[in-house]
Design goal:
Layout: E1 7-16, H1 26-33, H2 41-59, E2 66-74, E3 81-82, E4 88-96, E5 99-101, E6 110-111, E7 116-117, H3 120-124, E8 135-143, H4 169-185, E9 194-197, E10 201-204, H5 217-223
Helix pairs in contact: 2-4, 4-5
Length: about 230
């Protein structure tokens, strides 16, 4: 749910689902784990999907590039709105109380990473503020990153055009770390914190946050540092 100066999200519809959702490739995982054969490929593919889902669930929104239609209810006059998904790649349309808002909308009006629209023209438009509250605004937009294996659609046109960026290395690294955590914890009693083996020594296992599942602390630090404006205080 997105709030900013009295705006709340009513519905978010995925209009163009992501064609890929895995955040890392099988090859990158095998390289990190020093696995040269293909015997574990099916199991590793499952772990990649699981790790990607864990990070997305922790973040609370998708990371892969998708199209959205988000309907918001404006409760009082404000300077703009926050969207529920980011980073914003392009904005196709903005509808206020059933009427199209035609702009102008430029880079100075939008924080792509925070998914915030603060267009002065929008705030001063005759339909905003409305004569009555609440009133509704629908924003059609594209947000997210290019994940491995996803076709690059190029520059998207619209009220605000843009070209999607590849998934940042730190997020991919967080997913790799999570895959490794899942791989090494498979079949191990999670209550065991350390083990001793004669001739080898002691093995101490990394303590995990029980609320985060198998997401290790280094991966949590990356994901928890990806807020949107809508994640902040009302």
């Amino acid at each position: 749910m997105a709030f900013f100066n009295g705006a709340s999200t009513v519905t978010v519809i995925v209009t163009a689902p992501a064609e890929k959702t895995a955040l890392v490739t099988l090859e990158s995982v095998k390289s990190l784990l020093a696995i040269s054969n293909d015997e574990q490929d099916p199991a590793l593919t499952i772990l990649i999907s699981q790790a990607s889902s864990l990070l997305v669930r922790r973040l609370g929104r998708p990371l892969a590039l998708q199209g959205y239609a988000e309907r918001l209810r404006i409760h009082r006059h404000g300077q703009g709105i926050n969207l529920s998904n980011g980073p914003i790649v392009s904005i196709q349309s903005i509808i206020v109380e059933g009427q199209p808002w035609t702009g102008p909308l430029d880079e100075m009006d939008v924080s792509r990473n925070l998914a915030r629209i603060c267009a002065p023209g929008l705030a001063c438009w005759r339909g905003w503020p409305a004569q009555h509250y609440p009133h509704e605004v629908t924003v059609s937009y594209t947000a997210g990153y290019l994940v491995p294996g996803m076709d690059d659609p190029g520059t998207s046109s619209g009220m605000l055009s843009g070209k999607p960026l590849p998934l940042p290395d730190d997020i991919a690294g967080a997913c790799l770390s999570t895959v490794c955590s899942l791989y090494h914890s498979a079949g191990r009693d999670q209550a065991i914190k350390s083990e001793s083996e004669q001739g080898v020594g002691n093995t101490v296992y990394q303590a995990l946050d029980p609320l985060a599942g198998s997401v290790p602390p280094d991966a949590l630090a990356v994901i928890d540092n990806l807020p949107l404006a809508s994640d902040g205080p009302i």
